[in-house]
Design brief:
Elements (H helix, E strand, L loop, with lengths): L2 E9 L5 E9 L7 E8 L12 E4 L15 E7 L2 E7 L2 E5 L2 E2 L2 E8 L1
Parallel strand pairs: 6-9
Antiparallel strand pairs: 1-2, 2-3, 3-4, 4-7, 5-6, 8-9
Length: 109
């Protein structure tokens, strides 16, 4: 029942991996969420949830993006390090590492 819509993709400097930021919507009884996964550059986005980041806003929040999701972006700082920038949100998952990649998070106003 859940669907994922890719919002952005950022390739690692060596071109082997990518961070995919996406909206995950599981229907009318749940809120849409902003999620992020690190995947192989040749891979499609997995059907499941994000492997490094999951967040949402309460509906009607003045800072929410379209559909009430948290505005989020990714920037690689090296082949093994990525920064996820997000506005204040209700964070469900925020992994510090994924398969040897260090993941940092910064909150933007």
């Amino acid at each position: 029942m859940c669907g994922n819509e890719v919002l952005s993709e950022q390739l690692s400097p060596n071109g082997k991996l990518k961070v995919v930021i996406f909206e995950r919507d599981c229907g009318a009884t749940t809120r849409a969420t902003t999620q992020a996964s690190i995947v192989d550059v040749r891979a499609d986005l997995p059907r499941g949830g994000g492997n490094i980041f999951v967040a949402d806003y309460a509906r009607g929040s003045p800072n929410a993006g379209p559909g009430g999701i948290a505005r989020t972006s990714a920037r690689w700082t090296s082949d093994t390090s990525v920064v996820i920038a997000r506005e204040a949100a209700h964070v469900f998952k925020q992994e510090p590492r994924h398969e040897g990649i260090v993941v940092s998070y910064v909150e933007q106003p």
